[in-house]
Amino acid sequence: MKLLPLLLLLISNTLFAQNLDSEAYDLVGDRPNATGDATLVGVNFYLIDIDSIDDVNQRFSIDMFVRIHWQDPRLALPEDRKKGSNRTIPLNEIWSPRGLIVNDRGLTPQLPLVADVDDDGGVQYRQRFSGELAVNMDLREFPFDTQRLPITIISYQYTPDELRFSSPTAIGLEGRRLSADGWAYTMLEPEVSEFRVAAAGAIRPQLTFVIEARRNSSYYLVTTLLPMTLILFMAWTAFWLQPDIIPTRIGISTASIFSMIAFGFSIRLSLPAVSYMTRTDIFVIGSMLMVFSALGVAVLGSRWAHSDRMPQAQRLNAIARWAYIGLFIVVAVTATI
Fold first, then answer.
1. Which residue in 98, 178, 180, 261 has the fewest CB atoms around it within 10 Å?
2. Which long-range contacts (CB under 8 A, 24 or more apart) does 254-259 make?
3. CA gyration radius for the chain?
4. If the chain, 337 residues long, is cut into consecutive pieces of 10 residues, what is the mean pLDDT of each piece?
5. Domain coverage including residue 171
């Protein structure tokens, strides 16, 4: 929703980013063949690096190179002036597709804002961008999740009848290692679609490059889920003590509860505040219920032992030992499958 006012402003102001002082306004304000078919604009995307993926803020930092090319016959040279070499022209002195990266949250261009134009009017604009992009992450499967990292480009000024993205290409990632560790990356096929702004009744051509990032779950299994499992079985040891050993049984159970709460909070701080539960949340909540149940069994068994009901207390201990294992299997399977 924060992006909507910006898009409305860009779409309604058709003169935005145009050089109104140019002596050749028709080269700046009017697209090639303005009364004819849609202008074809090709985009080539090259991923240089992904520096980081921020789960909490739902951002990823990227370093990328983009080449945008189109044909503008108005820039073609007469036959007697063709030299077979490109001319370098400031971008604000010629027509451009008026591109906008929708999920830009701080990209910085690294190269001059110029275009190379050949003798036949073929235009190429090359730019390297680095910075942050927004991503709407779905963390329901965390830490076994796969995320789509999009780079969404639209033309904020032209409709699909006026401008069309053609033959988009993206360089794959096979055999390359990126800076953001803990993920396995795959470049998906570019997606050509339409961007709709319902409030303005506007439709704009849209091109999306998508990087698929699959999280390496082994790190979280070793650093988070394994310690929590050890805490669960620390609480389980209370069932192997005689019911009348009250201080030790209660001490084990309460220590397990405090440790589980601390781990649960630390895991939650590494994730954004979402309205749904992740697989890790299911495991944490199930584990907390188990350690609280262990405390309840320890208290009840100790009470029975001091009420001349030792056989019942011992039987409760025996049942709890195996019921606890069964509950652990249910929680683990629910959280991981």
1. 261
2. 254/295, 256/231, 256/232, 256/291, 256/294, 256/295, 257/288, 257/291, 257/292, 257/295, 259/231, 259/234
3. 31
4. 43 35 58 89 95 94 96 91 89 93 96 95 96 95 94 94 91 81 92 85 93 92 88 92 88 91 84 88 91 91 87 91 93 87
5. 4-215
Q: How far is CA 30 from CA 97, 151, 286, 297, in A?
A: 10, 27, 63, 79
State which of 158, 191, 215 marks the end of a domain: 215
Q: What is the predicted pLDDT for the residue at 26?
A: 61
Q: What is the CATH number of the domain that holds 255?
A: 1.20.58.390
With left for phi above 0 and alpha for psi between -120 and 50, is residue 85 left, alpha or beta?
beta
What pTM was estimated for this model as a whole?
Answer: 0.82
Same domain, 227 and 174: no
Cβ atoms within 10 Å of 119's Cβ, excluding its own? 17
Same domain, residue pair 187 and 268: no
